[in-house]
Amino acid sequence: MTRAAAAVGRIDWTVVGLVVVLGAVSVINLHSTSMATGTTVYLRHLYWLVIGLGVMAAVAAIDYRNLQRLAPAFYGTVVLLLALVLAVGKEVNGSRRWLDLGFVGFQPSELAKLAIILTLASWFQRVPRPGGYTLRDLIPVALLLGVPMFLVLQEPDLGHTLMLLFIGGSMLAYERFEKRAMLSVLLVTVFSAPLIWSFVLRDYQKDRVLTLLDGKADMHGAGWHARQARVAVGSGGLVGKGHGDGTQVAGGFLPENHTDFVFAHLAEEHGFLGAALVLGIYLFLILAALRSAVQARDKFGGHVAVGVGALIFWHVVMNIGMVLNMLPVTGVTLPLMSYGGTSVLTVMAALGLLLNINLRRTVF
Amino acid sequence: MSDVYLDSSAVGYRARARRLTLVAVGAFAVLFLRLGHLQLLEGDELEAASTRNFVRTVVLPADRGTIYDRKGRVLAINRPSFDLYVTPAQVKDLDGLIAGLRDVLELDELDLVRLRERIEEPRGMWRFRAIRIERDIDRKRVAVAESLRARVDGLSIRVRYQRDYPEGRVGAHLVGYLGKPTAQELEKDVEERYRADSMLGRFGLERRFESVLAGRDGFERYVVDARGARQDDGWGERAMAAIQSARPPERGHDITLTVDIDVQRILHEALADYESGSAVVIDPRDGTVRGILSKPAFDPNLWSGRLTPEHKREVDESPYHPMLDKSVHAYFPGSVYKVVTALAALEEGVLDPEEPIESPGSYEYGNRTFHCHKRSGHGSVDLNGAMAASADVYFYKLGETMGIDTLARYARRFGFGERPGLGINGEQSGTVPTRAHHEANTKGGFQHGLALSTAIGQGDVRTSPLQIALAFGALANGGTLFRARVVDHIRTEDGRVVSRYDSKPVGTLEADEEHILAVNRSLERAVNDPELATGHLAAVAGGRVAGKTGTAQVRKIVRGHMRQAVNRFQDRDHAWFAAFAPYEAPKLVVVVFLEHGGSGGKDAAPVARRIIEAYHQRIEQVFTTTARNEAKPR
C-alpha cells in the first residue's frame, strides 16, 4: 500500500495534467465541428480520450523492462498486420490504411510507430558500443526500420512512412556513432533524395511539394485545402472568432477541420492565444520526454523516452507546418487534437511509456 | 541501479539530449513566429479572404439617367433586358435542359454540342458559377424560358439594364454609346463604382456626363456556405452582423439637351446624298445648338455591348471614318473664312467696302502665282461683289496689306483657335496660323505669301463646322461670340433641377456695328445677287438667307494641273456652306460641311437650303409673312 502510494506520488502529474488540458481543449474544439455538421464527433472523441487515459495508465503501470521483453513479439505482430492491411485493408481514396474490425476501424501504421520505438530502443540496449556504433551496426537498424517503412509506403501512406523514418532517425541521433558511419548516413541521404523523388513519390505527392515551393496554390485538391487552412488561421487574429463562429469551419470552407486541419480550426476560433497555448503544451511534453530520457534508469528507457518525444515532435511539426503552409500536405494527425481512435490510443500509449520511464527513473 | 547506462557515456547522452532539446525549441520557435505572422501581421488580409469566402454580394445595378431632347423626347434610355444563365452544379437533367434550350433559342446541332461542352466543362467550385447562355432575349422567348425553368433545374433568367437609343444612328456622335471598363480603369477605380460587367459612357455626351448619368450601384449581401447555400441562422446570422448587408442603388440624373430630334432628322435627311460630312444648326442669339450631326454614323445600340462582327467590320473598313465626330474636327475652311479677312480689313481701315478693286484670275506675288478659282477673273468688284463671286484676288490683296498676324488677331475674336465648348469627342481648337506658327511648323519658315493663302481660308487654317457656326452666329447677332450650349439642364429622378446651363458669351468681335453690317450685307449678296451669287442655290422662296460658300482645296495645286479631274474621294475638295436666316433678324445659323464633297456652291449650298426650308416648315416659322410676300417666287 505504501509502495503504491509512493508510486502515485512519483507520477509526473504535470504531464498528466497537460494531457487532460489538451484533451479538454480538443473536445471543446470538436464541439464546434459538431454544431456545424450536426454530428456527435466531439462525444466520440471524448470516449476515445477516456479510453486512452485508461490505456495510458495501464501502460504506465507495468514495469517497462517487462515491456522490453515483449518488444520482438510486438514488432513481429505489427509487421504481419501491415502486410495484412495491404491484402485485405479497406480502400479509402485509393489507399489501404485501415483494417476493419467490424465495430471499429484500425490503422496498423499507428502501431508501427510504437513498434519502432520499442524495437530500436531494445536493440540499442542489447548491443552496447561504448566507443560508438559503426557502419556495420547500422545494417540491422536499417532493416528493423526499413521493413515497416516499406510496407507503409505500399498502402500508400507517405506521411506515416516519413514519420517512422523521422522517429527512427531521432532515436539514432541520441546515440553515439563513429565519424565514418555518420558521414555515410549523410551521403546516403543526399544521394538517395533525387532517387526517392523519381521512383518513390507519386505524382500527387510531388504536386503537393511543388505547390508549396511555388507559392501559388492550385485551387483544387490539396492546394485548396492548404489555402483555406491559411485563411482560417490568419482570420482568427489574436483572440479568434469565438466558439462556433469560425466561418471557415461552420461554412465548410476548411476541409478536414476535425482531423488533419484541426489546428486551423482551433486557430480560427480561438486565435493566437488558443493556438499558442496548445503549441506550448506540445513543447512542454517534448521537453519533458527529453528530460525523462537523461534521467532514465537504462538505455532502453532513455531511447523509448526520446522516441516518444520524437513521435510528438514530428507529428506536431509536420501537421502544424502543413496547416501554416510551410510543409507539404500529408495526412499526419495532430496528437490528441485530431479526431481518430487509433491515433488517440497510440499517443496515449506512448505517453504511458513516458510516465512509466519517469516513474522508474534513478535521479530524483 | 543500472550499470551500463550510468558510466562515463552518460555525459554524452546528456549532451545529445541537450542538442535535441535545442532542435525542438528551435523548430517550435519557427512555428510560433509563423503563427504570429499569419495571425497578427497577415490577419487583416486573410480575414478579408475569409469574408470573401462566405459573403455573396448581389449587385443591384443603378438605373442610368435618361437623355432627352429639348422637347422631352428620349435620346438614350435604359430598358430591362433578360439574360439566360445555366448553373452547372444545379443541373440534374442535362439532356432535358439542352432539349429545352434548343426550342427556346432555336439552336442548330453544332450550337448544342458547344452548349453541352460549356455546361460540362467547369470543375470544382466553378460548377457553382452561372454561365450566361444568351443575352437580351425577347419577351416571347422569356415566356418560353420561364416555362422551361419550371420543369428543369439549373436554368435562371436575370434582368439587367440595356441602353437603348431610339434614334439609332441619327445624332449618334452627340449622344454617344456605352462600353465595358478596361482593366486599367477598374484598377484606378478606387471607389469601386464599376465592375467588370459595368457599362460606362465611352463616347459623346454619355462619356462627358458619365458621373452624372451613372448613378451608383447598390448591393445586397448574404452569407453562404462552401456549397453556396444561403445561411441565415446560427453562424451565418452572427457573421452577417459584422458586414454591411445592403445599400440601395442610386439612380443617375436625367439630362435634357437643347437639340431637337426633328432638327437632327432634318440634318440626317439633308445629308442623305453625301457619304461624309457634318451639319450644324445653332441659334445665333445665344449659341444654343439645335442640331448637330456627323456622317457616316455608327449604330450606338450595337456599340453598347452588342457589337456584331459585321458592324465592327463595316466601321473598321469604311474610308469615311464613322467613329470621327466631324462636327468638332477641324478642316480647311476655304472661302467661308473670308468673313474674317473682310471684317479685319474694315476694322484696320484698309478697306472701303464700296471701292472697286481689280480682281483678275491670278495674282503674282514674289516668285509665286496665286490663282483665283475662276481663271478668267472677276474684273473690278466692291466688297459685295467680291463676297458674292468669292473673288480670291480681292482677298489676296487684303491679306497682303494686313499680314498674317493681323488676320490671326481677328480670327481669334471669331473664336477660331479655341475649343467651342461642347466638351466631347476630342473637340478640336483648330489652327489660326501666325508668323510664329509658320516659323515653327513650315519647311523654309514663314514667307509673306502665306498671308495670302490664309486670307482665303487655305494655308494652315483649320476650323471645325461648329466653330464656323458660332463665328457666323457672332456676325448674325451683331458681334457677340457665344459658347456652344448643348445641355439645357440636369435633373434628378423626382424632377429637382441639379444644374442649369445658361448661354454664355465668351467674347465679342470688338468691331464697329457698321463694319459687321457691311460684312453681313455682302453675305446676303453671296446668296441673292442675281448675277454674281456663288451661293444662289441656298436661296429660299419666301425669305432672305445670308451665307458664304467654301470650296477648300485639299490637294496641293501644282502649276498647270489645276482643276484636273479628280476621281479619288480623298483628292476632292471639301464643300462648305455657312448661312444665317432670316437676314433681317437671324434666328438660325446653318453650317454644312461635306468632306471631299465637291463644290461649296453646287453641293453644300443646296443642302443648306433644304435644311433652312425644312426648319421653317417643320420646326419654327423663321421667315415672317411680310418677308414672304416681298420675295419673288422662284
Description:
The complex is a heterodimer of chains A (364) and B (634). Chain A is mostly helical. Chain A has one domain. Chain A has helices at 2-10, 13-37, 41-61, 64-88, 108-126, 138-153, 158-173, 179-200, 203-214, 221-236, 247-250, 262-295, 299-323, 341-359, and strands spanning 90-92, 95-100, 105-106. Chain A has a three-stranded antiparallel beta sheet with strand order 1-2-3, with helices on one face. In chain A, α4 crosses α5 (108-126), α12 (262-295) runs antiparallel to α13 (299-323) and α13 runs antiparallel to α14 (341-359). The longest helix of chain A is centred in the C-terminal third of the chain and has 34 residues, at 262-295. Chain A is globular and about 60 Å long. The relative contact order of chain A is 0.15. Chain B is an alpha+beta fold and 634 residues long. Helix content of chain B is 37%, strand content 19%. Chain B contains 23 helices and 23 strands. In chain B, strands 2, 3, 4, 5, 10, 18 and 19 form a seven-stranded mixed beta sheet that branches. A five-stranded antiparallel beta sheet of chain B has the order 12-11-23-22-21, with helices on both faces. In chain B, β11 (277-283) and β12 (288-295) form a beta hairpin. In chain B, α11 runs antiparallel to α22, α14 packs across α17 (404-413) and α15 (383-389) packs across α21 (513-528). Chain B is elongated and about 125 Å long.
